[in-house]
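Section 3.1: Structural characterization of target chains.
Under the original work plan, the team committed to producing a structural model for every single-chain target entering the pipeline before any wet-lab resources were allocated. The record below documents one such target. The sequence was received from the expression subgroup and is listed exactly as submitted; it comprises 89 residues.
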Amino acid sequence: MDYDEKMTPDTQAVVDAWNSSQDKSEVELNVYNWNDGPDQLTTEISAGQAPDLANNNSQYAGLWTSINEIQPLDNLLPRSSSPISSLPA
């Protein structure tokens, strides 16, 4: 979920850059607003159609963790590919 509709073009630009940079995976951006997004994601999770990744606030993290729908990415991404580790100190 983007923080507001003004962010969507910037987020889409990042997605497009990723998709054009490699051919092993493809990212599809689905934007939900903050009012409906948590309910939409909960519905998708309940239906077995959860996205691979989602940006959300921590309010629902406990619920989704308790049903094993939130998993750490630490073991899936090499440390050097972390956007945070590539930022200058």
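The helical segments are 8-21, 37-46, 61-66.
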